[in-house]
Amino acid sequence: MVHRQPSGEPAMERPNLVLMLMDNLGYGDIGCYGSTQHRTPNLDRLATQSVRLTDYYSCSGVCTPSRASLMTGCYPRRLNLHISDRGHAVLQPVSRKGLHPEEVTIARLLKGAGYATGCVGKWHLGDQPAFLPTRHGFDSFYGAPYSEDMTPGPNRPGWPDLPLMRDETVIEAPIDRDTLTQRYTAEAIRFITANRERPFFLYLPHAMPGSTDTPFASTAFSGRSANGRYGDSIEELDWSAGEVLATLDRLGLSQNTIVVWTSDNGAVYRNPQQGSNAPLRGWGYDTSEGSQRMPCLVRWPGRLPAGVTCDELLTMMDWLPTMAAITGAPLPADRTIDGYDIRDILAARPGAASPYDDRGFFYYFMDQLQAVRSGPWKLYLPLEKKRCRLGGGFTSSPLALYDVRHDLSEDHEVSAQHPEAVQRLLALAEAARADLGDLDREGAGCRSAGWVENPTARRLEP
Q1: pLDDT higher than threshold 50 for residue 290
Q2: Residue positions annotated with a catalytic role
Q3: Which residue segments constitute the domains of the chain, with CATH numbers given?
């Protein structure tokens, strides 16, 4: 089944798409979402030109599953990328598992429509050749196959030095992580410039602020912020966005380019605190609002309203079906796509509403369904054995209902006042279990991940 939302507008000319994805950046980390600590003038200016989404979700609190959803328009559980080959929450170096070669990504969809496609940055959907971006619809790849914290160590046998790759060849190892944001930005500008005469899709998944305790930033930004290395990395990401946007302006491409700026999951807990998910509750790496509700700015001059806020429930799964609808590229008819065409919602057309209000949005922690959202309501499911840590462990969790559209900090539990909402969301959860699965339960609608029996390390050849 393919989800489509009717639109009053026919397929248009082929706009460029620039999709910028941050790593572990929180809802409250940039000025246009409330930060008073980080200086983000370029993003704040972009917000005045964009639709600012307040209820936009990642499909996971960690990297691999969220990126799988972004690329394919599907829940990670459907793709069997909710868990690694070693039972971890994300893929690690020299993994046997990856995004299945037959999955249709945004890049593959748009490449078929005549687009140039480039991936610059962190991939994290498999480091084996069959799983790399160049095998999933991207003409070119410049970046790292996984997270910046996945470096060799005593408890990491066989892990190579962190590799920087061009297409399928390692060109540097170990990577100078302090320079990554600068180098990814320069490569993104080169890609845009080289393809300015044809439609293009640039996927720019930055490595920062990242997963290490001490984020990385170049000497140009080191020590400049009021929030240590974390703030330095945020302010450098803001600079990067400004450089990309300035390139579009300089080349006369802004009017025909859709720009999406967002994050893969929320800021993680550190002591002392670094990132912020305020005013949301919770931290990255779980199914809280702070973990999965993301800042998201969407700009398309002349086609989408500028400087407005949208509080409809939308997700990262929606970009693939939306770009298919915009370009007229055919969606695969032989598989379920979980996302929706959200053109009408972004354009603020009368009566446009989120399809998730009827069908639900499902929060999974690895293989376990833990919460459901529909309309304003988020229901935390009653669980005797709730997964609670990436490294393993369970706790019990009571049923709880919150109006997360208006009560962003979840201060008021209201299940007793809204029993009809509780019952409706419980029914949606049961339907999801049948389709997508749950702890110790296979879903009828799930597909296989990619798999190789004898994985090899991506190393710099002498």
Answers
A1: yes
A2: 63, 124
A3: 16-346 (3.40.720.10), 358-442 (3.30.1120.10)
